[in-house]
Write a structure and sequence with these properties.
heterodimer; A: Rossmann fold; Alpha-Beta Plaits; 2 domains; 14 strands; 28% strand; B: mainly alpha; MetI-like fold; 12 helices; 84% helix; binds adenosine-5'-triphosphate; binds magnesium ion
Chain lengths: 365, 226
């Protein structure tokens, strides 16, 4: 488990002090995929870099499996970092090395002759501090299995300059997994990739999470990414986590405006706002009509809601647009509809919908 | 053949043994001063890179001192540097004349030149890659060797090539002051006695030397560029 306690990060330059993180507290369960979303400058990268101490927090504590990081000596910190893989938007592979050599790179360490070091390692209570030393054969075997995992066995002799973006990210993932990390930190890992490649990389990350049980912390500015693989999500704004919860919760019951904005940006429901703005005939209402957005999950499926309402309150219900998405194996639907009919009946219908746990938002009346 | 050569180049033919000595002296200075400068310059270049602000072994004091010293030696014209360093030469190699005495000013002039080039070559290694290496838990020494230097091999070879070529120029100059080498030879006979053919031959030899260095350099650059 990863715990952040009131982590604050300030950058001081000349006279100004920038608060990149304002007392962020966070708990991330082992084996989960935790997403952090926020717009540019929200402090996502800073937060991620604090987790492996690439950035020293100004204040606050970070615990990885109960070990507090900020007090650690460089040497122990390096060992902890070996247990945390990291991947980046721009891959950061070594151009002078082949795919295979890039993956083997983190495993190749100078061998220590000293007995003293070994004894010291054995005394460590936490296995986080044991630096594994590999033989040549072990490195080769590990590299081959990682190549297989990321599906690049046939490209092992190539140089990064000969690979596509998606392939480079696969190499970076394999490299990040070389030291059998417990955590994988992903800083905008898919932001430089096209949508299809993004999906394939996300699938790979999911596989890594499920097969190897690695906790993944992933930052992004795209809700699509969160939707695709995350279990939980935190929304960041101005150096703070403004909202967090399971992906399902956040998608169905967003509280903060930023969250709603991020959600809007992904669903095609958001187009309705444009239509409203343009006063398009599609959303033209007769007096008394209401344009309503419905959001529902799990038990109550869309069609029955509509037909029930229509029958029960003798309303005419026009569906303008709608989507159904699968989040964590649960269907989540959004519908934009126009209710036509008796004004009181419409009110009653809305009330009934709310009672059956459908989110109702009146967009225009 | 020999007759024809004696016809077109009357002055050079009777100085062949002396030309040979000068050539060997030039090679000697090139090899010793060149390799020393590359070694020291590489170390200084690396130190400049890693001690800079926000780099892996940030050390502003060390950086500033080294930076200032290198600038100082770079800004002194070479001929003046040669005279400035006579006592230093005397102390280090026991003489300040001849090919041996020339080594000290050559190294002092070349190290800053080379260190700056290495600094700019290493600066091209992306910060992101260094950060990725730090995130892997690799020691600074390993980052220097296995990331900075390894990633920059083509650039390092290119700067080494440029440095050796410019060193040939310095060697010709130092010869005039301290004595020895092809420069000295060309000035002594070609310039002072107006034996133009001597100059032509020296020019051709130096051209060949430069070309060979470029060939070797380019071969390795090509080999290590991926
Ligand atoms: N080294 C630094 N020095 C000074 N300020 C910094 C530094 N790094 C980040 N900041 C500031 O901290 C804030 C958060 O930056 P951060 O990189 O964490 O944002 P982000 O959410 O990752 O944005 P993006 O999506 O653009 O990557 C920004 O206002 C940025 O200007
Ligand atoms: Mg960022």
């Amino acid at each position: 488990m990863i715990v952040l306690k009131e982590v604050r990060k300030e950058y001081t330059s000349k006279k100004k002090t920038i608060e990149a993180l304002k007392d962020v507290s966070l708990e991330i369960q082992e084996g989960k995929i935790f997403g952090i979303i926020g717009s540019s400058g929200a402090g996502k990268s800073t937060l991620l870099r604090c987790i492996n101490m690439l950035e020293k927090p100004t204040k606050g504590q970070i615990y990885i499996e109960g070990e507090e990081l900020s007090g650690l000596k460089m040497k122990k910190l390096r060992l902890i970092r070996q247990k945390m893989g990291m991947i980046f938007q721009h891959f950061h592979l070594m151009n002078a090395r082949t795919v295979e050599q890039n993956i083997a790179f983190p495993m190749k360490r100078k061998r220590k002759f000293s007995l003293f070091n070994k004894q010291k390692n054995q005394q460590e209570t936490s296995d986080m501090y044991i630096e594994k030393r590999y033989t040549k054969k072990e490195i080769q075997a590990k590299t081959d299995s990682l190549l297989e995992l990321v599906g690049l066995s046939d490209k092992k002799g190539m140089y990064p300059s000969q690979l596509s973006g998606g392939q480079k990210q696969r190499v970076a993932i394999a490299r990040a997994l070389a030291n059998d990390p417990k955590v994988l930190l992903c800083d905008e890992a898919t932001s430089a990739l096209d949508p299809q490649t993004t999906i394939s990389i996300l699938k790979l990350l999911k596989e890594v999470n499920q097969k190897l049980g690695i906790t993944i912390i992933l930052i992004t500015h795209e809700m699509e990414v969160i939707k695709e693989i995350c279990d939980r999500v935190a929304i960041m704004e101005g150096g703070e986590i403004v909202e967090q919860g399971s992906v399902l919760e956040i998608f169905t019951h967003p509280c903060k405006q930023v969250t709603k904005d991020f959600l809007c940006a992904t669903s095609n429901i958001s187009k309705i706002y444009e239509l409203l703005e343009q006063n398009s005939p599609i959303v033209h209402l007769e007096p008394g009509d209401r344009l309503v957005k419905l959001q529902y999950s799990t038990m109550n499926t869309g069609t029955s809601i509509i037909s029930n309402i229509s029958k029960l309150f003798s309303l005419e219900v026009n569906i303008i647009c709608g989507t159904i998405e699968i989040l964590q194996n649960q269907p989540v639907g959004s519908l934009v509809v126009i209710f036509k009919g008796n004004k009181e009946k419409i009110e009653e219908a809305i009330k009934a919908l709310k009672e059956s746990q459908v989110e109702v938002e009146v967009m225009k009346q | 053949m020999m007759e024809w050569l004696s016809d077109v180049m009357p002055n050079i033919m009777d100085k062949l043994p002396s030309l040979q000595i000068s050539f060997i002296e030039t090679l000697y200075m090139l090899a010793i001063a060149g390799s020393l400068s590359v070694l020291i310059g590489l170390i200084f270049g690396v130190i400049l890179t890693v001690t800079k602000k926000n780099h892996i072994l940030q050390n502003i004091v060390l950086y500033t001192i080294l930076d200032k010293i290198l600038n100082l030696f770079r800004s002194i014209p070479f001929i003046i540097l040669v005279s400035l360093l006579i006592y230093v030469s005397q102390a280090i190699v026991g003489t300040f004349i001849g090919p041996k005495g020339a080594l000290v000013p050559l190294v002092f002039a070349t190290v800053p030149f080379y260190a700056r080039q290495i600094e700019s070559v290493l600066a091209e290694v992306s910060d992101g890659l260094i950060e990725a290496s730090l995130a892997m838990g690799i020691t600074p020494i390993q980052i220097i060797i296995r990331v900075y230097l390894k990633e920059s091999i083509p650039g390092i070879i290119r700067s080494t090539m440029t440095t050796f070529i410019s060193l040939i120029g310095l060697i010709a100059m130092v010869g005039v002051v301290a004595g020895g080498g092809l420069g000295d030879f060309a000035i002594r006979y070609g310039f002072q006695r107006s034996q133009v053919d001597v100059i032509y031959v020296v020019v051709i030899i130096i051209l060949c030397l430069v070309t060979i260095i470029q060939w070797i350099g380019n071969y390795f650059i090509k080999k290590y560029t991926h």
